[in-house]
From TrEMBL:
The lineage of its organism: Eukaryota, Metazoa, Ecdysozoa, Arthropoda, Hexapoda. CDD domains: ASKHA_NBD_Arp6. InterPro entries: Actin, ATPase_NBD. This is Actin-related protein 6. Belongs to the actin family. ARP6 subfamily. Coiled coil: none annotated. Signal peptide: none annotated. It comes from Drosophila willistoni.
């Protein structure tokens, strides 16, 4: 396995990376972080685990608004990933499967090719999107189903910067049916920061901690209006209201939900944030972006709209094969709510079936692994010879 293929699902929040013969990828933060406590040092990728105090963590992201624009940061992170601290091997003379955002800018694509061939000396590359890899993995997974059926599917990718709805008909992406919503994990974390800062404590600089709070306590309300009646009775309020113990980075390394009647040691001295309707109003943005003034529809309406742009013969199978990937799809209650809302928007005689894999974050990477180990992988490759002969422009025609 001297030159096994590297598979890199290069997301805006985390990079999922590993060799094609490995069982699972490493998930590495795709950014550089600086902490107040250690000013001299920048933490790259997984090095953040070595930071003792992650309060007021400052992020330098490679991606701006969902597109790879900060190349110095990306190169620093990639240098770390392809070193002995990262996956333990370099890109030199290897083939790579790498993802890019939907509808990526031509200039960004060219810059990426240039960097991979010139700086990292890759032998060849296969450039694709996370949704394509997820669809490929889904079809490979579903050998037991009739293959024709799973060739028609809708991928909902709830990412960091955007949520994309990408329909596939007969295994091909329907370009004119792709829909994008400008809400992802980043917008949810930022909204949570604003709510907590406005109501309780100023946490505007605490992206890292607030992101953990979001992951620990948020859920999607199946019936939003009904759940909003939480303040009408004490009993209802008790079901939702919690106290979240904030980390102090000496005794409490990571925040947690306080369990009434079972205090941990010196819990009384710790700082706490009381949370109630923030728990479900934050993920609600995925269904109603207009709540924070984004003039766009939510995921269910976007799926219904994407469906209308697909051939009607495929509608039944598309709705039976809706695959949900991406980190922000992991909120409890997300699937039942999406199914309920979708059910109301599509024809009654069509069944709606949502599939959420066990690991929605790494799912696309596994698709990349399937491609990299497939017998005809070499046919997809854009090699260094192609690059030296045709430059960056020929890749568009492939």
């Amino acid at each position: 396995m001297a030159n096994a293929v590297i598979v890199l699902d290069n997301g805006a929040h985390t990079a999922k990376v590993g060799l094609a013969h490995q069982d699972e990828p490493r998930v590495i933060p795709n950014c550089i972080m600086k902490a107040k406590s250690e000013r001299r040092r920048a933490f790259i990728g997984s090095q953040i685990e070595e930071c003792r105090d992650t309060s007021a963590l400052f992020y330098i992201l490679a991606f701006q608004r969902g597109y790879l624009l900060n190349w110095d940061t990306q190169k620093t992170v990639w240098d770390y990933i392809f070193s002995k601290d990262g996956i333990g091997c370099t890109l030199d003379n290897r083939n790579i499967v790498i993802t890019e955002p939907q509808m990526n800018f031509q200039s960004v694509q060219e810059a990426m090719l240039e960097m991979l061939f010139e700086e990292y000396r890759v032998a060849g590359l296969y450039k694709t999107t996370a949704a394509d890899l997820a669809a490929f993995n889904y079809v490979a997974d579903s050998e037991e189903r009739t293959t024709m059926q799973s060739l028609n599917c809708i991928i909902i990718d709830v990412g960091y910067s955007f949520t994309h709805i990408v329909p596939f008909v007969l295994g091909r992406r329907v370009q004119e049916a792709i829909r994008r919503i400008d809400v992802g994990g980043k917008a949810l974390t930022n909204h949570m920061k604003e709510l907590i800062s406005y109501r309780h404590l100023n946490m505007m600089d605490e992206s890292h901690v607030v992101n953990q709070i979001k992951e620990d306590v948020c859920f999607v309300a199946e019936d939003f209006k009904d759940t909003m009646r939480v303040h009408q009775s004490e009993a209802k309020r008790k079901q939702v209201a919690i106290d979240y113990v904030l980390p102090d980075f000496t005794t409490v390394k990571r925040g947690y939900v306080r369990i009434p009647g079972h205090p941990r040691e010196d819990e009384e001295q710790q700082q706490m944030v009381p949370l109630c309707n923030e728990r479900f109003t934050v993920p609600e943005l995925l269904f109603n972006p207009s709540d924070i003034g984004i003039p766009q529809v939510g995921i269910p309406e976007a799926v219904a709209d994407a469906l209308q742009a697909c051939p009607w013969q495929a509608h039944r199978e598309l709705l039976l094969n809706i695959l949900i990937v991406g980190g922000s799809s992991q909120f409890p209650g997300f699937l039942p709510r999406l199914k309920r809302d979708l059910r109301a928007l599509v024809p009654d005689d069509l069944e709606v079936s949502l599939i959420c894999p066990e690991d929605p974050v790494r799912y696309a990477w596994y698709g990349g692994r399937e491609i990299a180990t497939s017998p005809n992988f070499d046919e997809f490759l854009y090699t260094r010879d192609d690059y030296e002969e045709f430059g960056v422009h020929a890749l568009q025609h492939r």
